[in-house]
Write the structure tokens for this entry.
Amino acid sequence: MTLKAQTFWLDTVTMPTTDGARPLPEKVDVAVIGSGFTGLSAALALAKRGARVTVLEAEMIGWGASSRNGGMALTGMKLGLSKVLSQYGREAARRMFAASLAAIDCVEQIVTEEGIECDFSRSGHLEVACKPAHFDHFARGAALMAREFNHQVRLVPKDELRSEIGSDIYYGGFVDAMSAGVNPARYVAGLARAAQKAGAELYERARVERVERDGTTLKVRTKRGDLRAAEVVVGTSGYTGRATPSLQEKIVPIGSYIIVTEPLGEDLARAVSPRSRMIFDSKNFLYYFRLTPDRRMLFGGRAAFFPETATTVRESAEILRRGMVGVYPQLRDVKVEYVWGGTLDFAFDMMPHAGKMDGLHYALGYAGHGVAMATYLGTQLAAAISGETSDNPFAHIPFPGAPLGLYNGVPWFLPFVGAWYRFLDWIS
């Protein structure tokens, strides 16, 4: 089979349709920019509360990271919990970690209530240690989670690791049973249908060019015309652009790439991943991998730091195939059928952020933890806009920009970042 430079998940789903000729409404209660997990969960929650909501998507529904990711709904955040504790204090750190658990519950609740068939499964995640010192760090982290967050994970020493992963290159791991797996394209399609059913209006090819204050309302200018909104929600993550310059200057778009193999035989699939965990390693320049519901190996990582282009996608296919075979020599002769790239949204402090800036509600900075957290923070923005109490521990933490203001949304420094992380992986 010819290698397809396209997202595997999109071959498993039919996206909901929209009317490309329908004009935008003149005025709505809330305009949502972006039709990913953040925007659609906010739109669904707002529409169910009776608000008139319009979702404005620059491309097609779920076009960005929401259909391109590995489908892992993980506990925690990108920043390690010991650093979260030291930077924000015990009370705030506990609320943040609790939000990461509530986020997975939120996805499960929406999937159940809306009848979304997206292969949601509490399969748990496995983090594997690339060096002996990393496993020692796992042990300290497990003790910290039990002591400070009342959360239990299970350490797996190297001599027991074969029960979790069919690879001998790692030095142990730990399992968090609370994490989940999902088909992200089916999930984002289900969110879109649920939002439409609740009354939200979805518009594709409606790229927002700018948002202006116009008296008591906001004027949203798009490629398909203008509309006025009392409130605006920004859910653009790694694709945040010039329409919202204050947010663009605080988010670094970083490329992540994925390959997917042909279906594995049942015995081979069970051998490489006996428990079908969501798996990732302990490097800064990490690999993440899992079995898809039809027993393919999905293998991803930072094959290139820059956002996807035809060149970086093509080059990433071979880089990731070598990485996959390094982890799983038994997959050497398995064909790779898909390769694609997507763009993650990293804040400079590697933390999620959600709140209000320049009159716009926003949630972004998920750094690879967006499947669950984006859904959750979208619902929390909806609650806040509706005048209800929201549980958003990320609303009032500092949201730093680049040191010395040396960033205007164009990530010129990514080659240096990549080299720095490779150096850290070498010395750690």
Notes: The radius of gyration is 21 Å.
